[in-house]
Amino acid sequence: MTRRRLTELAIQLALLFGVAALVFWLAQNVAVNLKARNLASGFGFLDKTAGFQISQSLIAYSERSSYGRALLVGLLNTLLVSGVGVVFASLIGFAIGIARRAENALLAGLAAIYVETLRNIPLLLQLFFWYFAVLRPLPGPQEAIDLFGLGYLSNRGLQLCAGSCPVLGRFNFEGGIAIRPEFLALVVALSTYTAAFIAEIVRAGLAAVPRGQREAAEALGLSPRQTLWLVILPQALRVIIPPLAGQYLNLLKNSSLAVAIAFPDLVSVFAGTALSQSGQAIEIVAITMAIYLGLSLVTATAMNLYNRHITRGER
Amino acid sequence: MRGEHPWVPGTSPGTTSNMLGRLLALALFLLLSSGSPALAAEAPGDTLSLVRSRGYLLCGVSEGLAGFSSPDDAGNWQGLDADFCRALAAAVFGDAAKVRYTPLSGKVRFTALQTGEIDVLSRNTTFTLSRDAGLHLEFPATTYYDGQGFMVKKAAGVAHAAELSGASICVNQGTTTEQNVADYFRSHRMKYELVTFASSEETLAAYVAGRCDAYSTDLSGIYAQRLKLPDASQHVTLPEMISKEPLGPAVREGDDQWAGIVRWTHYAMLNAEELGITKANVDAMKDADNPEIRRLLGTEGDLGTALGLSPDWAYQIIRQLGNYGEIYARDLGDQSPLKIPRGMNALWRDGGLQYAPPVR
Fold this sequence. Notes:
The structure holds two protein chains of two kinds. Chain A is mainly alpha-helical. Chain A is built from nine helices and six strands.
């Protein structure tokens, strides 16, 4: 090792040590200051009884469950609505993106109107629109629309028969499976909004495939559908996947707007009700931020791996 | 307690950025300020001297709650909680105008008090054990006795809360709103569906749209929300109160003198009402024969000095703001749009809970 290299290494080590010391000093300061001001009392509250109801849960939860359990319920609801949203956003987005490049002017025009309208109106407004537009015209449970023995539709949501059919009580249906209007509105708003951005990414991806590829496919006698699926799309995906991952992350983070229309996601349940009730603002905000960061990093990693997988064949 | 508008940009302008700004400032402060005990202890200390040397009172209020603290068209804070800070300023400075208001969301209010950003939190805050002991706060007085209730549509034919089994309840995310509903339905073994919104506008809109059978918040809030309904007569407030919500100003633990001033500011206004002293007659009352009146207004004795204030502290409160009954009527009662009956907030001799120890 040369002398110069040694010096460089020493400088880098010193810098690393300095940064580590600074971080340690800051962390120490935060801990001492929080303690002195009675601001944070640690994460012990996660074991305490939450005491509030969550109307929709994928796992067993009651008022006697702990704050930690409430956190899990909120997280799973966030994952559920984001997962369903990603699927629908992708389907709609790819369809619209392909339609924008259609030779049929009407189809291409309608797709352009869709994109320009949806992506230029704030998501929160769209969310309110879908929620109240869906809610207002629907009848109350007493006059619920009978879906031919499959279930009932009312302003309390979609009540489906599962095992047994829902029975009308004094106020609500009981039994069966309930899909609440909050969930429906959130999925519709998130997927249609994100689809507008995905459509533009898909359009850009298709445009990036050289014209000669299509001509070559046609010369080989492939049908338009075969050309799209076997030649154009696989090449377009290389361009589409990286920005698409960004849109999935946006959808995941945008799902936190759920709190505005009473869908019990992570922010509503944990950074909302649990925070207000327990007063553990610093711990709860820290946990919530860490979870969103973690989810985003996992999503980004998965999309990067998929991208590496599909670009492997490139020469 | 009733709710806030956390996290949602657009529903309450500025809230999110405010809160994030505050959290950021707090984070920076916690990161950079030295952790030595001498500096760390600055927060409690001698609030009265601090307020005096600063020249005005820093008062934490809500971001807008009709009747308690909300800015009027000219940007002046109105309501019972805002007026309490004016009374406190009148007691300390002899000038009710020496107040600066800081609107706080429900989430940051205690942090703002604990870090010394405000001198007193006068923000429809419920006095509870966990806040008294857990958050190291002091609740010197209860300025308003509230409780959570229900509003239902008349057409539903519900007369009592006990008939709400199986109902959907719309609530605005609050500190104990969800828990109170849960406690009530659990203890009565009734089923329910809780639909929790971040802001009160959407809560009311969803209730109106038929998403819920009942709307639940504190009774004072129900009175305020009913004003917004075009068909208010088609909705009824159920008689049951499912929680106790004693609201009052909060201060930091460990400054007994300051807590005493806050406590006696409220008691001075209550005693004034009991003794018949009003904004209009306070000057004449200074020379009244009744020794209780003379002591309260500082004509006799120097009880104000014991609090660290001037002898005419109570006189200044009543001259500038009036007694408790006058403030109530102006902010919440018959002279206000809310028209909330005195109920539990009547004086003890009228069957209410407002009772002040004697000034002697």
